[in-house]
Amino acid sequence: MTAITLTRKTSAPWFAAAVKFLSDVAEGIREGHQMASRYEELSRLSDAALAARGLTREELPQAIATGRAGR
User: Fold this and answer.
1) Which of 14, 15, 32, 69 is the most buried (most CB within 10 A)?
2) What is residue 67's DSSP assignment?
3) Distance between CA atoms of 21 and 4, rounded to whole angstroms?
4) Residues in CB range of 39: below 8 A, 6 or more apart
5) In this predicted structure, what is the pLDDT of residue 12?
6) Domain-wise residue ranges, the chain
7) Is the distance from CB of 56 to CB of 47 less than 8 angstroms?
């Protein structure tokens, strides 16, 4: 009598790593677009409006990068 064993083939570890890498890249691009959009939005405000939010024009890039320039 002959027995046949079926095995479930799983994806290679490199494939999972590649998918994770591409997902991380896409997330980074999305985050970069959000930051650029936020910068554009805040850069259109007057100095007085920025001061009301506790910001100066010179602080915008760092405030956006660190998340201090919340909505």
Assistant:
1) 69
2) T
3) 37
4) 60, 61, 64
5) 84
6) 29-71
7) yes
